[in-house]
Write a structure and sequence with these properties.
Chain B: InterPro entries: Ran_GTPase-activating (IPR051553), RCC1/BLIP-II (IPR009091). Chain B: GO terms for molecular function: guanyl-nucleotide exchange factor activity. The complex is a heterodimer of chains A (82) and B (338). By secondary structure, chain A is an alpha+beta fold. Helix content of chain A is 15%, strand content 30%. Chain A has a 3-stranded mixed beta sheet with strand order 1-6-5, with no helix packed on it. Chain A has a 3-stranded antiparallel beta sheet with strand order 2-3-4. In chain A, strand 5 and strand 6 form a beta hairpin. Chain B has 2 domains: 193 residues, Regulator of chromosome condensation 1/beta-lactamase-inhibitor protein II (Methylamine Dehydrogenase, Chain H), CATH 2.130.10.30; 122 residues, no CATH class. Chain B has a 4-stranded antiparallel beta sheet, with no helix packed on it. The longest helix of chain B is centred in the middle third of the chain and has 9 residues. The chains are: A alpha+beta (82), B mainly beta (338). The interface between A and B is medium-sized, with 16 and 24 residues.
């Protein structure tokens, strides 16, 4: 997948109320991605107003401080039994 | 996107030039923030359109005049920096990374003084993204994000007042997302994310003094001897101008967030690069009803977007903003911007 840019998570803005990370897009809107999606391994943030995407550079442990800031916990893995 | 940064009174993206501003005074500079546009006229009057980060004196007009007179202006993601007619550098808007240069102040609804110029004659202001730079008396000062060493070698999240970037003498500068490029003692210098291109830029500039350069968010474009050179990322065809030849001289050119534009022989304007919002014009297969963008020209080749038709009219300037393109035309009686 071709992305417009790579952005380190520390350069993104986190809103603890919406639990969304955002970053300015050259179209004037903002790339966005949910913290839970990052935790689940997704690394592509999309812009709601155009086709550009960025790759978020992060480690899963980087997310801990943001969960703490939001007062929430990472999603619990769903166990599927046979 | 859905904000009236074109100053047209609606939020449609347009892919054919529309008349946005008209008057007896010549616009001399237009620059774009994330969702707004600043327009400076030769008489010093400054206008803003779009999602303006300053207090609006009126909600009715597409373009709002800022109180006072100004000599220069530039825009970051959500802030404005300008030089007043009294030779004071002022800033306003939102500056979470210190780009307002107002110490602890992160939001300023009006333009506030941050610097008194030492040598007003050649002073300039530059802004992009989360940074502000002031070129004054041959020295370059800056504030805002320093996460990529675009202000100082030692990284930091925010520098909240103007600090010396280069003691100079600095003669030219351009600013992109997390980088600054400038000419210091005749040598190119690049700080921040584009520092890797410093050696290449030094090579091309060292033997020449008659060059111009501008920045997109993630690249630097140089015009030298009527040829364009490109340095940086080009995933949206931002570099196609470097392999293009024009038959007539470039008389004006500019860069936007991820596109460029050039006026050839004061008559025809071409755009290239990322044009998803209509900012690189329509192409042969476009179906732009009433000029509204149909997203048919997302990553644009060098594309003709405007040609003067009246014999007494010229294009005297063009400017790129955040996915916006601006063409300034003049006749013997009036000046307009499209």
């Amino acid at each position: 997948m071709s992305t417009y840019d790579q952005v380190e998570i520390e350069d993104m803005t986190f809103d603890p109320d919406t639990q969304i990370f955002t970053y300015p897009c050259p179209c004037g809107d903002r790339f966005q991605i949910y913290i839970d999606d990052l935790y689940d391994g997704e690394e592509i943030a999309v812009c709601p107003s155009c086709s550009l995407m960025i790759q978020v550079i992060f480690e899963q442990e980087d997310l801990r401080e943001f969960y703490d800031e939001a007062g929430t916990q990472p999603p619990v893995p769903v166990t599927v039994s046979a | 996107m859905g904000v009236d940064s074109l100053g047209l009174g609606h939020d449609n993206d347009m892919m054919e030039p529309q008349l946005s501003f008209e008057g007896p005074n010549k616009p001399i500079k237009i620059c774009g923030g994330g969702n707004f546009t600043a327009l400076l006229q030769e008489d010093g009057s400054l206008y803003l359109a779009g999602d303006v980060p300053l207090e609006r004196s009126s909600s009715d007009d597409n373009w709002i005049q800022v109180r006072g007179l100004f000599k220069d202006v530039s825009c970051g993601w959500s802030h404005v920096v300008a030089i007043t007619s009294e030779d004071i550098v002022v800033s306003g808007g939102v500056g979470e990374k210190g780009e307002l240069g107002q110490l602890d102040t992160r939001h300023s609804l009006s333009l506030q003084p941050i610097w008194t110029l030492q040598n007003p004659r050649e002073a300039q202001v530059f802004a992009c993204f989360y940074n502000t730079y002031v070129l004054d008396d041959g020295k370059l000062y800056g504030c805002g994000s320093n996460s990529k060493s675009q202000l100082k070698e030692s990284k930091s999240r925010a520098i909240c007042s103007l600090t010396i970037v280069s003691a100079g003498p600095v003669s030219h500068a351009c600013v992109g997302k997390n980088f600054v490029c400038f000419v210091e003692k005749g040598q190119a210098r690049v700080m921040g994310t584009m520092a890797q291109y410093e050696a290449e830029l030094r090579n091309i500039m060292s033997e020449n003094t008659n060059f111009e350069f501008n920045s997109m968010w993630t690249s630097i474009v140089v015009l030298l001897h009527q040829k364009f050179y490109f340095y940086g990322q080009a995933s949206q065809k931002q570099d196609v101008v470097a392999v293009h030849s024009f038959n007539e001289p470039a008389t004006a050119w500019s860069t936007g967030s991820e596109h460029g534009m050039v006026c050839i022989d004061k008559r025809e304007v071409y755009c290239w690069g990322w044009g998803e919002h209509g900012n690189c014009g329509s192409i042969a297969t476009s179906r732009a009803i009433n000029g509204v963008n149909d997203k048919s020209n997302v990553n644009s080749e060098v594309n003709s977007v405007y040609k003067v038709t009246a014999s007494d009219s010229i294009v005297y300037a063009c400017f790129g903003g955040c996915a916006t393109s601006w063409i300034c035309t003049a006749t013997s009686e009036s000046e307009t911007c499209k």
